[in-house]
Amino acid sequence: MSENTTVLVTGASGRLGTVMVPLLAAEGYRVRPMSRHAKPGWVAGDLRTGEGLAEAVEGVDVIVHLASAAGKSQQTDVQGTERLLAVAAPAGVKHVLYVSINGIDRVPYSYYRAKLDTEKIVERSGIPYTILRAAQFHVFVEMLLSASSRLGPVLIDPSWRLQPVAVEDVADRIVELIAAPPTGEIIEYGGPEVLTFDEIARSWLAARHAKRPIWRLRIPGGMAKAIRSGAQTTTATPTGTRSWRDYLATKY
Ligand SMILES: NC(=O)c1ccc[n+]([C@@H]2O[C@H](COP(=O)([O-])OP(=O)(O)OC[C@H]3O[C@@H](n4cnc5c(N)ncnc54)[C@H](OP(=O)(O)O)[C@@H]3O)[C@@H](O)[C@H]2O)c1
Q1: Residue 250 CB: number of other CB atoms within 10 A?
Q2: pLDDT at residue 46 greater than cutoff 80
Q3: Which terminus of the chain, N or C, has fewer Cβ atoms within 10 Å?
Q4: How far does the centroid of ligand 1 lie from the alpha carbon of residue 74, in Å?
C-alpha cells in the first residue's frame, strides 16, 4: 500500500520534518518534501503567497502538514492552510494529517489561537483528516532552555508542567495514523512522563556538566498560569516511549 502512496510533507526542513521525511521513505512511501527553498528532489511551495502549492499537491494521496511560522501564523498557518487545502481538495487528496499542539484550547497565546483556527480550516476543508496534537518536542524544550539562559543563569518558572516528546516518536505516530483511515478526530499525544520545568532544567544542566545557577521565578500572566496547571499535558494514550533523560543521554 505505502509504495503506491505519494505523501506531501510540508515543513519538511523543520525539527519534525527532518525526521519525518526519511522515516516515510524507509516505510516505502513516495515522499515529496516541500520547502520555500527549492532543492533537488523537493518541491518548492510557499503557504504565505500560494506560490507552487497547486504543483505541490498534484498526484498526492496524503498530506502530512507540518509547516508553521509562529511569528507569522495568520498568514502562514491559518491563511496558508486554507490556500493549501483549497488546491488539495480538487486534486483528490484523500487524507490530510495536520500536526497541532496539546493544550491550544487551554493556553491563552496568539500562536495557539492561530493553531486552533487552522484546525477548524482542516475540519471544514472537505478532505478526510486526522489532527494530531503533540506535546513540546525535546529539541524545542532544549531551545527554550538555551534561550532562557542567554544571560548566564537559567531563568525559568519551575512549576511549569510539560510532557516533552521525541520528534522520532511523533513521526512514528504519524506513520501509524496515515496507514489507517482518516479518523476525523483530534488526537493528543505526549511523552512518557510529565515533568516540572525545574526537573527539566536541572537534568539539562547535569547532562551538560554546566555549573550555571537556576533563577526561579513565577512568570505572571494567563499563559504561564495555564502551563503551571498542566494545560499542555495529556492523559491520552499511547504516549511516546523516549524520555527527556533518554534524549539528554543520547545527545550528551
Ligand atoms: N516544536 C514543538 O515543540 C512542537 C510541538 C507540538 C507541535 N508542533 C507543531 O509541529 C509542526 C512542526 O513543528 P517544527 O517544530 O518541526 O517546526 P519548525 O522546525 O519551526 O519548522 C517549520 C517549517 O515550516 C516551514 N515554513 C515556514 N513558513 C512557511 C511558508 N510560508 N510556506 C511553506 N513552509 C513554511 C519551514 O520550511 P522552509 O523554511 O524550508 O520553507 C519549516 O520547515 C508545527 O505545526 C508545530 O506547530 C511543534
Answers
A1: 10
A2: yes
A3: N
A4: 14
